[in-house]
TrEMBL record:
SUPFAM superfamilies: ABC transporter involved in vitamin B12 uptake, BtuC (SSF81345). It comes from Caldimonas thermodepolymerans. The keyword Kinase does not apply. This is ABC transporter permease. The chain crosses the membrane at residues 6-26, 33-54, 60-84, 91-110, 141-158, 188-207, 213-232, 239-257, 263-283. It comes from the Bacteria.
Length: 306
């Protein structure tokens, strides 16, 4: 039971990274913008957050730095695709490649750096409950932030006027523009917000999840978060559940190795990516289901007055 509790705790920890990034990308896509640069944004945010934590000793300033780095890169991407009408897919790939190279260059001096002793978090009283305490109530506050963010985003999208406008822009920007809404500015706001959340996820990786800096340490999490939005059919609650699913598969490899299962380590390491491919293949078997849930203007440029 103790091993299962630790596995659940590790799953929540690993899934938090994917959940926060996936929710950020969901906001982008609900506004009709596809950003393939999540991997690069998360890498730049990871080094920004880690460097801030090294020099200030504050995790919260590190998260702010990560959010700022992600938002800045997303803003540059937004100007390109929203105002200059560049191809969203090509621009996103360029952003990802830039972020990978830039983070590697900037992070050279931080490869051997170490953070101060990591604080331990627990909810008083609940943390001492057998099984449930170690599994659910000894988590970093960002784990609970991801859950609260999911609830808040679901409420915003389906219960608020702002969410209705955002979804309307994703479905038909021409109609929203005809009603007088500033489509381009709202799309840019959505892109920057999504970038900031990807930045927080990147900083979480380098400051909390694996408190160190290693080149390329995001290791495909940005791409998995991008796949999560399709897997979840653009719904926040499903993004959270999918994040925990992939987080559990990631942690399962370490659990199996700890139990002495004789499986090549390369096979276990590939499990999260195999799971991603399998899920996407299964979803793709029903294109009508995806088409019904997908924002109608996703990936399409908008030209006011045309």
């Amino acid at each position: 039971m103790d091993a299962i509790a630790l596995l659940i705790a590790a799953t929540l920890n690993a899934g938090t990274v994917l959940a926060i990034a996936g929710l950020g990308l969901l906001i982008n896509e609900r506004a009709g913008i596809v950003n393939l640069g999540a991997e690069g944004m998360m890498l730049v945010a990871a080094i920004a957050g880690f460097a801030t934590a090294v020099h200030t000793g504050s995790d919260w300033l590190a998260f702010a730095a990560g959010a700022g780095a992600g938002a800045l890169m997303a803003a540059a991407f937004g100007v390109l695709v929203i105002w200059l009408n560049t191809n969203q897919y090509a621009s996103g790939l360029a952003l990802s490649l830039f972020g990978t190279g830039f983070s590697a260059f900037v992070g050279i001096g931080y490869t051997q750096a170490k953070l101060s002793e990591r604080p331990r978090f627990e909810i008083p009283g609940l943390a001492d409950v057998p099984f449930f305490g170690p599994a659910f109530f000894k988590q970093h506050p960002m784990v609970y932030f991801a859950i609260a963010l999911t609830v808040a985003l679901a409420w915003f999208l389906y219960r608020s006027r702002g969410g209705l406008v955002l979804r309307a822009i994703g479905e038909s920007p021409e109609s929203a523009h005809a009603l007088g809404y500033p489509v381009r500015r709202l799309r840019l706001l959505a892109v920057v917000t999504g970038g900031a959340l990807c930045g927080i996820a990147g900083a979480y990786v380098s400051v909390v999840y694996t408190p160190l800096w290693v080149e390329g340490m995001i290791a495909g999490k940005g791409w998995i978060a991008l796949a999560l939005t399709t897997f979840a059919t653009w719904r926040p609650a499903r993004v959270l559940l999918g994040a925990y699913l992939f987080g559990g598969v990631t942690m399962l490899q370490f659990h199996l190795q700890g139990q002495g299962v004789q499986v090549p380590s390369q096979v276990l390491t590939a499990l999260p990516y195999v799971a991603t491919i399998v899920v996407l293949v299964l979803i793709s078997r029903n294109p009508t289901w995806i088409r019904v849930n997908m924002p109608a203007s996703l990936g399409k440029s908008f030209y006011p007055g045309s």
